[in-house]
Design a protein that fits this description.
Helix content is 44%, strand content 30%. The chain contains 3 helices and 8 strands, in the order H-E-E-E-E-E-E-E-E-H-H. Strands 1-8-3-6 form a 4-stranded antiparallel beta sheet, with no helix packed on it. A 4-stranded antiparallel beta sheet has the order 2-7-4-5, with no helix packed on it. Strand 4 and strand 5 form a beta hairpin.
Length: 214
């Protein structure tokens, strides 16, 4: 039973790691509008992205209305990619800091308004490495190619486990800090209530003494 649970947990971990690191999006963007897409990337991870505008008229050049500006920034505001008035492009960089990275697409302002269809592919970690090109360049055997891919996957899983553990420790520290602050707030609220009750008692006592009730 324990062995089965361990296998299920391993498969779940692999799926959790592989599912967010590679995806392809297709979305519409209207003139003058901006759309941003976020991706959580751990530090020292390789990430690559590719984008292009679908041509509404096959075989013809894209009109000037079909241009976008693209900017990729980190959570702290560092700029990793910036392109103006383009219809396609790509970026690649190694994340220096962990956290959310934002890719923002802005369509040129145009009247009347037009709608652009954009394809965007973003890969992170293992998926960002083109093993097919590596195999083609080095002429390695198929088995060696598969072993390299598996080793890279294992290393990625290992790094992801450490990353998740660090994030869990950060959340635990945040919870402990929040609980401590709430405890101090409760104590402070208690003494404030006692103080207010004491002041009310003294006020009523003085009032009744003046009225010679007591």
């Amino acid at each position: 039973m324990f062995l089965q649970s361990q296998k299920l947990w391993t498969m779940f971990l692999i799926l959790a790691i592989w599912s967010p690191i590679s995806y392809s999006l297709h979305f519409d963007l209207h003139s003058g509008r901006t759309k941003c897409i976020a991706e959580d990337i751990k530090s020292n991870s390789m990430t690559v992205g590719k984008y292009n505008i679908d041509n509404p008229h096959e075989g013809q050049a894209l009109p000037q209305t079909h241009k976008i500006s693209v900017k990729v920034t980190s959570n702290s505001g560092n700029n990793y990619h910036h392109a103006e008035q383009v219809d396609s492009g790509q970026f690649a960089f190694s994340a220096v800091e962990a956290g959310d990275y934002m890719a923002c697409f802005t369509a040129v302002d145009h009247k009347p308004e037009v709608s652009l269809s954009i394809d965007f592919e973003w890969k992170t970690g293992v998926q960002s490495k083109s093993w097919a090109n590596v195999a083609k360049k080095s002429q390695v055997e198929v088995m060696e190619f598969e072993v390299k891919s598996l080793l890279d996957t294992v290393n990625s899983i290992h790094e992801e486990m450490y990353y998740l553990r660090d994030r869990e420790e950060e959340m635990q520290d945040l919870n402990r800090s929040t609980n401590t602050k709430m405890a101090w707030l409760s104590v402070l609220s208690f003494f404030v209530c006692i103080g207010v009750a004491g002041m009310q008692f003294l006020h009523l006592k003085t009032f009744f003494e003046k009225k010679k009730v007591i």
